[in-house]
Design a protein that fits this description.
The structure is a homotetramer.
Chain A (H helix, E strand, L loop, with lengths): L2 E5 L7 H10 L4 E5 L25 H9 L3 E7 L7 H8 L1 H4 L8 H6 L2 E8 L3 H4 L1 H14 L3 E8 L10 H18 L1
Parallel strand pairs in A: 1-2, 1-3, 3-4, 4-5
Chain lengths: 183, 183, 183, 183
C-alpha cells in the first residue's frame, strides 16, 4: 500500500506542499512535482479520423508511476479559485488516456484506488475554493476514482499554513487514516 | 468599441468556436487562439526577494492586444468541468501582471471593460458547468472586470452545437446586445 | 400530456409568476400556489420505532394532484439565494412520501415525468442563484426525476422581469418546447 | 461573551444537535429549537404601498434573543442538500426585519457578531452539502454577518455522527476557539 502525491504548485516549500508533507510524513510516498516535467496541453482529437496521436512528453511516464500506487493525492495551491493550470493540463490529458489502447484498463485501475485533494488558498478558500472541490467531485466521479476526502488550508506567504491549526489537525488526521490503510 | 475573443480550445471549428462566432458575427473582433501561442505556466514568485522575473513568451503581447478592446469573451470548451488547462495557465499569469511595473493600471483598465464566458461541454454542462461559472465570477470580481454574462452550450462531436437551439438563440441575443453596445 | 406548476412565492403577479406564465401560456396547466395551502414542516421520524405518522394537512392532496401531470415546474422567487422556505418545506416532506405505503411507486412515477425550475432573483441571480440550481440537480437526481431545464430571471420590483429580455426569450423557447411535447 | 444556537432540526438528540453540543459544551449558550416556535413564512410585501405588516408569531422574540449574543451558530440537518425548510423560513423573514423600523440597526448589530454553520447530512455531505455552504456565504455577506467557519458531518441514523471522527475533532477545535473568544 503506497501513496502518489501529484504536486501542482511551483514554490519550494510552498504552503500546499508543507500541508501535504504533514499529511504523509513517515508513509511510503512517491512525490511528483508537475513543474519538473514537460506535459503538453491536450489537443482534442476525439473525433478526428485518426484519433489521438502519440505525444512525446513526460505524461505517460507519470501516469505509469501513479498507477502503481493505491492512494493518489492531488496537492494544488488554489490559483484563481481552482487547481493550477499545470495540474489542469495534466488532468485534461486523461481524455486521451481514456482512448489510449495502451491503457484500456485505466478506469478500472483507478476504481480500486482512492483520491484526496489538498489545497491551500489565500482568498477565503473555505468558501471560494468550494467550486473547485465540486469539480474534483465531478472529475473523480467521471473517471471512477473514489473521492475519499479533502483538506482546504489558508495561506499566502510561505509558512502561513503553519498558523492554520484547523488544516494542520486535518492533515494529522489524514496521516493517521492513511497509516491505518497502509499497515 | 471592439471585442477580443480568447479561445481556449484546440479543435478547428469546434463547438465552442462555432457558438462564439455566432455571437460575434459581423462585429469588430480580434480573435486570439491560445493554442497558437507559447505561454509559460506561472512560477509563483510573489514572495521571493526578487519578485516575478520576466518571462520570454507570448503572454505579454497577448495582454497588450486584449487591453485594446472593450469587451473580452472567454471562449472555452468545458474540459473536465472547467476551463481548459491552456486558458487556466493564461489566467494564472494574471498574478504576475498584477505586480508588473509595466502594467500598473491593469485592474483599472479591466474595470472599464466587460467580460463574457462562452463554454460548451458534453456532460450536463448546464448543471456540471456551474462551478466553472462561479469561478469565473470570483476571478472577474477579484480582478475588477465586470462579468456581463455567459452562455453554456451542449455538444460533443463537432457540429453538435448546431442542435442546441437554446444556446444558438442565446448567441443571437448576445450578438444583438454587443451590436448595440458597439454602435 | 399536461403540466403542474408549483409556485413558491407569495406576491400576486410577482416576477417569478409572470415569467412562469409566459412559459406555459396556452398550455394545459394546473397551478398550485403553496401559499394557499397548509403544509407542515417535516418531522424526521425515519428512525423512530413507529416511523412517520400521518400528518393532517394539505400535503398529500397536493402530491396527488401533481402526480397526475407529465411535467412539473418548480417556480420560485430566489429568497436568500435559494428556493423559498415554503417550497423547501414542501420538498422536505418528500422524505416522508418515500416511506409512505400509500406512495410505494412515488419514485417510479416521478421517473417518467420531467422537471423544470423557473426562478427570479434580485442579487446577481445568474451567478448567486447557481448553488440553488445545483441543489435542484441533486434533489431531482436523488428522487429520480429528470431535470429538463431551468430559467433564471432578474428582478426586484413587480414588473421588473419584463425588462429581462433574456429570460423572456428563454420562457418563449420553453413554451415552444412544452407545446411540442404536449401535442 | 455568549453564544446563540439556532437549531433547524426536529429529532431529539439528532446527529446535528449532538455535533453542536460537542462544539459548545461548557460554554454559555442559549439554545433555540425552531421546531418549538411558530414562525410564519414570509409574505413578500417589500413593494406594496403599506409595506410589511406586523406578524403575530414568535419570530421577533427569537430575533431579540439572538441579538443578545456574540456568536450565532446555525445548526441544521441537511435536508435535500440544504438547510431545513423551518430554518429557511426563519432566514426568509430577515427581509422583513431589514425594513422593520424597530430594527433599524439589525445589520449593524449583526456585523459585530460572528456566525458558524454546523450541518450533518447522509448523502455525501462533504461534496453535496457545498452549495448550501455557498448559500450561507452569500446570506451572511448580504446581511453583513462575518462567517467564521463551518463543520459538515456525516450521518443518517441517530448516533451515526459519533463515528465521524473528523467532524468530532472539528467540533472540539471549534469549542476551544469559542472558549478563547469568550474568556
Amino acid at each position: 500500500m503506497s501513496i502518489a502525491v501529484i504536486y501542482g504548485g511551483t514554490r519550494p516549500d510552498g504552503n500546499t506542499e508543507t500541508l501535504t508533507k504533514e499529511s504523509v510524513q513517515g508513509l511510503e510516498v512517491e512525490e511528483i512535482h508537475l513543474k519538473d516535467y514537460f506535459i503538453e496541453p491536450i489537443v482534442d482529437q476525439r473525433h478526428t479520423s485518426e484519433g489521438f496521436q502519440e505525444v512525446k512528453d513526460d505524461y505517460n511516464a507519470l501516469i505509469d508511476r501513479i498507477l502503481k500506487h493505491d492512494v493518489i493525492i492531488f496537492s494544488t495551491p488554489i490559483y484563481w479559485y481552482s487547481m493550477t493550470g499545470r495540474m489542469k493540463n495534466f488532468v485534461d490529458r486523461w481524455s486521451q488516456t481514456l482512448r489510449d489502447p495502451k491503457y484500456t484498463d485505466f478506469k478500472d485501475q483507478l476504481s480500486r484506488k482512492e483520491a484526496y485533494v489538498i489545497a491551500v488558498g489565500g482568498d477565503q478558500p473555505l468558501m471560494k475554493g468550494l467550486p473547485m472541490i465540486q469539480q474534483f467531485h465531478y472529475i473523480f466521479d467521471f473517471i471512477g476514482l473514489p473521492f475519499a476526502g479533502y483538506i482546504i488550508g489558508e495561506g499566502n506567504k510561505p509558512g502561513d499554513i503553519l498558523q492554520d491549526q484547523k488544516a494542520l489537525i486535518a492533515a494529522e488526521q489524514l496521516r493517521k487514516k492513511l497509516k491505518e490503510v497502509i499497515s
